[in-house]
């Protein structure tokens, strides 16, 4: 069951990325969880992967801007 991996957002999205790495939304969610836990470089990689999967995904492009603002 999903409850077993929902310790926090990071754990949930880390588990989901294994199941659905081809999903732009999953890539985005994992990236933002990574950011929240201080892993900006890894987050950026997953945001670019989301854009590669779905070039018009505005949330992923927004996430790139958020990371740039964090610097």
Descriptive notes:
It contains four helices and no strands. The radius of gyration is 12 Å and the shape is flat. It is mostly helical and 71 residues long. Helix 1 packs antiparallel against helix 2. 72% of the residues lie in helices and 0% in strands.
List keywords for this structure.
mainly alpha, 72% helix
Counted beta strands: 0
Number of helices: 4
Note the main sheet.
Answer: none
- Beta-strand fraction estimate: under 5%
The residue fraction in helices comes out at over 70%
Uncertain segments = none
| Cα distance spanning the termini | 37 Å
Over the alpha carbons, how many angstroms does the gyration radius reach?
12 Å
**Mean of pLDDT:** 92
SSE order, one letter for each helix or strand: HHHH
Structural class of the helix and strand makeup? mainly alpha
Q: Shape, please?
A: flat
